[in-house]
Amino acid sequence: MKKSEIFLELLVGVTALGALVAGGALFAFSSFVMPALRSVDAHAAITSMQAINVEAPRSALMLPLVGSALTAIATGIWAAISRPDGWVLAVVGCVGVLAAFAVTAIYHVPRNDAFASVSAADAAAWASYEAGWTVWNHVRVALYLLSGIVLAVAAVLPATNAVDTAQ
């Protein structure tokens, strides 16, 4: 394997790791954060979610979210141009990561920004926000996790091919 091929495989692996970490972090919201917020009164849920929405963009969560999107762009293009085997898996995985990031940018960010001005007493606004936010969070969790798995397979594919060829 040439150095450039090794670097590409590392980039595919890093993108896979970022997608899996992002998917795992967002899975926490789907699995217990949002259910916990549903279990408290609307005032507590609204103020808690508004605080989460202030902290999230400043948190370490941005590293796998933004990082995996950036590496997906580079990886997808590079794999499509230079990878003879398994490029389709790499590109499909990268497109999935970018789709998950798009859900965040197109749906969650504007919705979170609008929710910042909601009154803590507006139970109807909370019910509407929570239902849609959670459904689309499930979508991005699935996209990140499935893309991460596809990219992990794509990352090890050249190594398995090299073993097969050596035998």
Written overview of the protein:
The chain has helices at 3-38, 42-55, 62-82, 87-115, 123-166. Helix 1 (3-38) runs antiparallel to helix 3 (62-82) and helix 1 runs antiparallel to helix 5 (123-166). The chain has one domain. It is built from five helices and no strands. The protein is mainly α and 167 residues long.
* Principal-axes shape call: elongated
Percent helix, as a range, is: over 70%
Number of helices: 5
Low-confidence stretches: none
Structural class call reads mainly alpha
Domain tally = 1
Instruction: Name the beta content range.
Output: under 5%
Oligomer: single chain
Query: How many β strands by DSSP?
Result: 0
> What's the order of the H and E elements?
HHHHH
**What is the first-to-last residue Cα distance?**
16 Å
Main sheet: strands, sense, barrel: none
Mean pLDDT: 93
Cα gyration radius (Å): 19 Å
In short:
The protein is mostly helical and 167 residues long.
Describe the secondary structure blueprint for this structure:
Blueprint (H helix, E strand, L loop, with lengths): L2 H36 L3 H14 L6 H21 L4 H29 L7 H44 L1
Helix pairs in contact: 1-3, 1-4, 1-5, 3-4, 4-5
